[in-house]
């Protein structure tokens, strides 16, 4: 596949990146790899039922302007082989094994929704592996309302079916005019890739991941005070899937973490405000590891437009 320069001059755009695969413990994992080859790579971990084409190209390209960015499919999802795990622990173990197979000794992680559960578990189980952590639209183990993700989502999925709309319109965005506009342009971005698109999730894999999400919501809280690396947390102020209170809770429990809450935004707040989120994420990732994070003065901060 031919490559072209993105707006930042870092090489191939995400929508043109080739589909790659690597075998890890007898399972083939699908991934895409963009951005410069120097520095600490950033691994992207996505939401329930997401495949490679569900990563927002504006966010990936923005981050890849300065960092190597690797987007992956979980086991049993999209073009990855095997059977989808039913626990976050298994997904975290898979991801650690994948990172090792790619030859990385140190990475940054960005986890959205389900990916944020996995990212937290990785940091706690393999603390020396992760340099910096970005958690978006997500919550801690045992967090408020997480075990009800399915109960909250099914009615909105049915509504989407009846109105011939993508479920993410109702799950990721608010019903305000601003939210509806953001949903429309976001969904359009996800269709920019025309060739070599990933496979959609199977119903069985979709349900197995939901089982893992429910188990995460019901398990005992983890000791987030053990997370001793810089952490950036972002969400919308009206997240119906993983209630926004969870983001505030994580920020209070993770020492020195930075929190950004976007106004009139839902679960997909970083997609709605990608033009604001990307510079914030780049600044966060680019800071010296000796610089202390800004801490809780940002709790509840609204980004007004």
TrEMBL record:
> Which InterPro entries does the record associate with it?
AB_hydrolase, AB_hydrolase_1, AB_hydrolase_fold
GO MF, one example:
hydrolase activity
Q: Does the keyword Aminoacyl-tRNA synthetase apply?
A: no
Superkingdom of origin organism: Bacteria
One of its Pfam families is Abhydrolase_1
Q: Where is the AB hydrolase-1 domain?
A: 41-271
What are the protein's UniProt keywords? Hydrolase
Q: Which PANTHER family match?
A: AB HYDROLASE-1 DOMAIN-CONTAINING PROTEIN, HYDROLASE, ALPHA/BETA FOLD FAMILY PROTEIN
> What is the protein named?
Alpha/beta hydrolase
Organism lineage reads as: Bacteria, Pseudomonadati, Acidobacteriota, Terriglobia, Terriglobales
């Amino acid at each position: 596949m031919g490559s072209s320069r993105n707006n930042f001059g870092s090489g191939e755009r995400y929508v043109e990146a080739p589909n790659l695969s690597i075998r890890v413990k007898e399972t083939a994992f699908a991934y895409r790899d963009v951005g410069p080859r120097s520095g600490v790579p950033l691994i992207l971990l996505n939401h329930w039922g997401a495949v490679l084409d569900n990563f927002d190209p504006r966010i990936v390209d923005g981050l890849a302007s300065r960092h190597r960015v690797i987007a992956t499919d979980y086991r049993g999802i999209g073009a990855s082989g095997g059977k989808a795990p039913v626990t976050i622990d298994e997904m975290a173990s898979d991801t650690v094994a994948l990172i090792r197979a790619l030859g990385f000794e140190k990475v940054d992680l960005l986890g959205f929704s389900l990916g944020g559960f996995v990212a937290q578990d990785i940091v706690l189980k393999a603390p020396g592996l992760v340099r910096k952590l970005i958690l978006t639209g997500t919550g801690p183990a045992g967090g408020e309302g997480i075990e009800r993700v399915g109960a909250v989502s099914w009615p909105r999925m049915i509504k989407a079916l009846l109105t011939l709309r993508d479920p993410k319109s109702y799950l990721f965005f608010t019903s305000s005019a601003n939210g509806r506009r953001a949903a429309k342009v976001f969904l359009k971005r996800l269709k920019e890739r025309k060739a070599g698109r990933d496979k959609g999730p199977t119903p069985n894999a979709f349900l197995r991941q939901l089982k893992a999400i429910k188990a995460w919501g019901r398990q005992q809280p983890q000791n987030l005070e053990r997370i001793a690396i810089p952490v950036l947390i972002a969400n919308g102020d009206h997240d119906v899937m993983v209630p926004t209170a969870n983001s505030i809770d994580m920020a209070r429990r993770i020492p020195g973490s930075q929190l950004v809450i976007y106004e009139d935004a839902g679960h997909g707040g970083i997609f709605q405000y990608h033009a604001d989120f990307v510079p914030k994420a780049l600044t966060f990732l680019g800071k010296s590891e000796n610089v202390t994070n800004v801490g809780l003065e940002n709790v509840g901060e609204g980004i007004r437009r």
